[in-house]
Amino acid sequence: MRIAMIGATGLIGRQLWPLLEARHELLVLGRRPSGATCEKLGRMDEWPALLAGERLDCAISTLGTTWKKTGSWEKFAAVDRDAVLAFARAAHAAGARHFLAVSSSGADPASRNAYLRLKGEVEEALGAIGFNRVDILRPGLLLGERPNDRRFLERLGILADPVTRLILRGSLERYAGIDAGLVARGMAALAEQSEPGLFRHHNREIRTLALS
Fold this sequence. Notes:
9 strands
């Protein structure tokens, strides 16, 4: 398959693109080099234009940031919502029939929490673009090393994960920690599925996909 991807330098993305490149023809779009063989670099607002003339089968977003890193809600939304949706629409115009994206456990367009509401709105918008298949991954707390990106509350969550994992069972399991490498492997497996529809995957489903 011909796959385009954004977010390749992030916690999940840097573990996902080598898996995709080993089995498919991969094009990475980004702001800085990822190490992928084939990539086009530019500002986020230039990414849709970088797909001009491409013919795609599948598109993947592992792009994401934090309010703390961007400094404002508007800049955060420009990454987690606007850039993702602009890329998705450009990928669909380039022929992609399958789209995969990382969202968040608890995402809900009706949520009172602004972060979860935005994530839910993005999920809804992706489902309305016209892809034959959309896979939304909703991992819990992502576990893994983030070079040069220390997130205090996230670090506390990681340290507490062995305890919280004992508490978060049953329907609450979706909020527990999950290794970013497992999410990457789950996405790589999902990229090769073709059954039409909109599918949401939480921790349990992601682990099953990654380990199958």
